[in-house]
UniProtKB/TrEMBL annotation:
The chain crosses the membrane at residues 20-43, 55-75, 81-99, 119-143, 149-167, 207-225, 245-264, 331-352, 358-379. Keywords: Cell membrane, Membrane, Transmembrane, Transmembrane helix. This is Major facilitator superfamily (MFS) profile domain-containing protein. One of its GO terms (cellular component) is plasma membrane. SUPFAM superfamilies: MFS general substrate transporter (SSF103473).
């Protein structure tokens, strides 16, 4: 996760540094979302069929190779914005195939009884990396250049692969009754049949459906700010990469606090906490859009991170708890699709930022997020009253 946070900062800042275009910044970041439109469904089937740990390790090795490739391009002064677009698409492919296995592995490690605490602590660990990694990346970028950041990203990815070797769990899940040894057309039909069964299962579970819609809305409306942050740092605040690193780190501090709270809070009133967290995120983004002062933005990052962590943790926990084990990989793959639909927020926000400025773009997204959260609060009691 440290590598991912460093990459988010470095890739975005490097693109904007080279091209000074909000549209290109949005396009490059959207590249990672393109594979997420379809591939998570196949990743979910893989997660329900084969050793999840091996899938995770393959993804970590791929991430390292991509980072080292960008490092070489920067060092040889051949880097262009479209190279970063290609690397973004490749990283999205890796993420789409790996993350369903990663998320579905957690209940195997801890069991359902400790799932909420485990996911909260997992989010806390990710938040801790958000706290430190962007600042490190910002300092490295500012003083030693982007190539060294990508070198470190590759090393960290390899390190995570080695660490995964030491994970011990309760064995693989029981596969479906279909034969997985069918080759050719039969194998493809089985794969598509598994995907279809997963979609039908989600459709039959109303609470899971609403939670997935909520996850999609918050991804489309809240996440684009992370990718458009270079516009604020450069054009609104007139500062450098170190300042962007501080913003992301303070957001990580808020997320860490939110994750620890969820872990300690238990299972009471989780639906209300989820929706309050979404309201807090929307109001924080609105504050960033309205107040063009850097130190105020730093302060707004704390509630933004807190709301983001509580929302993300609770949605994921409830979806996992309500899903049957044999469908869990496929359900989580559908959950991962919401990242593929992020362009619905990032691309328009990038274009609006070119035309009217980043503040207008984020302000519109913030208002829409508040409206969607209000709709869920008043019209979906099942989510609001979830325990």
């Amino acid at each position: 996760m440290s590598a991912m946070q460093m990459q988010m900062l470095s890739r975005g800042y490097l693109v904007y540094d080279m091209e000074s275009s909000g549209s290109l910044l949005g396009l490059v970041n959207v590249g990672a979302s393109i594979p997420m439109l379809v591939l998570p469904l196949f990743g979910g089937v893989l997660a329900d069929r084969i050793n999840r740990k091996r899938i995770i390790q393959a993804g970590q090795i791929a991430a390292a190779l991509i980072a080292f490739s960008v490092f070489v391009l920067i060092r040889t002064e051949r880097i262009e914005w479209f190279h970063l677009l290609v690397s973004s698409i490749m990283q999205g492919t890796m993420f789409a195939l790996m993350m369903p296995a990663r998320q579905a592995l957690i209940p195997q490690l801890v069991g359902k009884g400790l799932l909420s605490n485990a996911l909260a602590l997992n989010t806390a660990a990710m938040s801790a990396t958000t706290l430190a990694a962007p600042s490190v990346a910002g300092v490295l970028y500012g003083y030693f250049g982007p190539s060294n950041v990508y070198l470190l990203i590759g090393i960290l990815s390899l390190g995570s692969c080695i660490a995964t070797l030491f994970i011990r769990h309760n064995g693989d899940i029981e596969p479906d009754s279909k034969s997985h040894n069918v080759e050719g057309k039969g194998a493809i039909n089985n794969l598509l049949s598994d995907i279809s069964e997963g979609l039908k299962y989600v459709k039959s579970q109303r609470l899971i459906m609403v939670l997935l819609i909520m996850a999609l809305a918050t991804t489309v409306l809240a996440q684009p700010f992370r990718f458009l942050m270079p516009i604020f740092v450069v054009d609104v605040y007139n500062l450098g990469p170190e300042s962007m690193g501080l913003l992301m780190s303070v957001m990580g501090l808020g997320a860490l606090a939110g994750s620890i709270y969820i872990a300690a809070h238990g299972n009471k009133n989780r639906g209300r906490i989820l929706l309050v967290g979404s309201f807090v995120s929307g109001l924080s983004l609105l504050g960033v859009a309205v107040v063009p002062i850097y130190m105020w933005a730093v302060l707004f990052m704390i509630p933004l991170g807190l709301g983001d962590a509580s929302r993300r943790t609770i949605i994921m926990t409830l979806i996992m708890e309500k899903s049957e084990e044999r469908y869990r990989g496929r359900v989580m793959s559908i959950f991962m699709l919401n990242f593929g639909l992020m362009p619905l927020g990032v691309l328009p926000a990038g274009v609006i930022s070119d035309l009217f400025g980043g503040q207008m773009a984020i302000g519109i997204l913030a208002v829409l997020l508040i409206m969607v959260t209000s709709w869920v609060w008043f019209y979906h009691d099942g989510v609001r009253n979830s325990q």
